[in-house]
Design brief:
With 653 residues, the chain is mainly alpha-helical. 55% of the residues lie in helices and 2% in strands. Helix 11 (308-321) crosses helix 13 (370-388). 44% of the residues are buried. Belongs to the peptidase M2 family.
Length: 653
Amino acid sequence: MRCFLAVVTLLIASPCWSYDRTFIEGANNNLGEALQFLREYDNEASSMCTRVTEAQWLYATNITEQNRKRMVDALSLQAKLDRVSWQKVIQFSWSSLPDPMARRQLQMLALKGRAALPQEKQNELAKMVAEMKEIFNRARVCPFATSASSQCDLSLEPELTRIMAHSRSYEEQLHAWKTWRDATGPKLRSRFSRYVELANEAARLNGFRDAGEQERAAYGVDDFQSQISEVWSSLAPLYRQLHAYVRSRLRKHYAIPHRLGPTAPIPAQLLGNMWGQNWKNILDLVLPYPGKRRADVTSEMLRQGFTPLRMIQISEEFFTSLGLKPMPVDFWHKSLLERPTDRHVACKASAWDFCNRRDYRIKQCTEVAMDDLQTTHHEMTHIEYYLHYADLPYVFRDGANPAFHEAVADAVSLSVTTPKHMHRIGLLNNITDDYETDINFLLEMALDKVAYLPFAFIVDQWRWQVFSEGTRNMNTAWWELRSYHQGLLPPVARSEDDFDPGSKYHIISDQPYIRYFISLVLQFQIHQALCTAAGHVGTLHTCDIYRSREAGRVLSDIMSVGASRPWTEVLRVATKGSASGLDARPMLEYFKPLSLWLRVQNRDERMIGWVTTDQDTALYEQWSRGSASKSISHLLSWAAPIITIASSYTIIR
């Protein structure tokens, strides 16, 4: 059965994924043998995970060719173990076993991964992904202002990212945007097409229709696509209000009417980020009340003589104040908290579980700054999660679904971000609790959270369409979705040779992306549940759960079960039965004061939304209208929630 979302105002819930168990289930229904296999697998997989993680840590904290080779060798051994284990799993008739925990573990092992592929094709798939990563990481472009001595050595991080964040020149931003895509997409397109073929073959060998269906199965929800589409439909009006306000401010700054009209989509390079996925870097252009102090406590941290170690200790104290676990001894001895001066490291902050129930670390090139203080809390939440499910079998040592780990960490960050929390830990003397400061805070949060919603939604909508319909017209389909949901357009003409999705690392590195959308929604649901447990009174965006043992118990309940129970049950427990699936209402409640303010600010705007004209679509449509436009119509009906026309000012193509 094909799963389509009907283009009607009420989305009909129907199964959107299924699999044929005959591909992945045998005849052995001996419970004793199944339990023995799971005990052996737990020991072997845990040991292998420790070995692989140690190799990955060594490479990330000392980037050399020798360490890279050790990491690749360890990953190769892990892939072999996964394949052998999968071949054993599918000999069991696991769906008929009477033990629910054994049944769940075997099902999880049978359904995930690409072990079903023949060995040579597994190797080819791994090689294809590795080549795409290498092309991406090695891409370099020329500077905007070139001279005879100029070198074309600008990389995405940090040079191009810094230009996109801080340049206020339309032409310089356009140059960075275009040259990055020129340096990546064309080289990646053919490899990505082969990757799609191999991923689909692996999924079909696992009993799925295609790789997109296999990815969706990880959430174990029959109406998964209906849920996420309905949630986005509920949040889209808030996004359109933010879009209209930001477009108005950008029009005033750039004063280029023919490039940025009052009813037009926004050129994609103007939003402070290479993909227009996060708009917080243009806060200076859109902040409504610049005279009001924002709660950036970096200067106070420096005045008080903060160090990276003290920032980690403050983060730990946040969790112990909730009654949660202190960091183990190995954490303090083995974590990397500052950038070394004697070697090259990957500085992106991350939390590490070495799978041996004692070794947990953070890797972070910590600077004494407010952003990094919030990051330490985020990463330490992951460590807390690891600690709480450490005694579970290896298969269950993970979040309740692929988005849960990040959602819990971001829910904690929603408390830590508040001016109230900064005041309580001695970094903010006075809380300026006036309306204008409040709106400034919420707008800054919206540029981070609300602006990200449509991008997080469409990446896998596009990828699933490619998996199900093929690789023809991939670039056009990408821009159809971006213009339809984000209200963004490419600033220059694009063709099918460009492959703009390849400019995003997650796409070419085989990383599912819908978890970021789900995490965005879940974090506000979890935040509301924690605030309710803490007895918070007032608006949701002012809640800080610091020192609440009741909120700590809810967090502990969420984290302790790991992936041993369906995420819908975990959410039901956390919310005391008020929710068992995705719910947009907590996020809307959080931003309600801003939503009301935006409606007032936008009352004179010609349009809340955007109109995509034929001239706009000519930038990326490379076919004659006819059968191809029918394909895109199918794409939007399959992937998009219906956006109803709420007023004469809300018009979206």
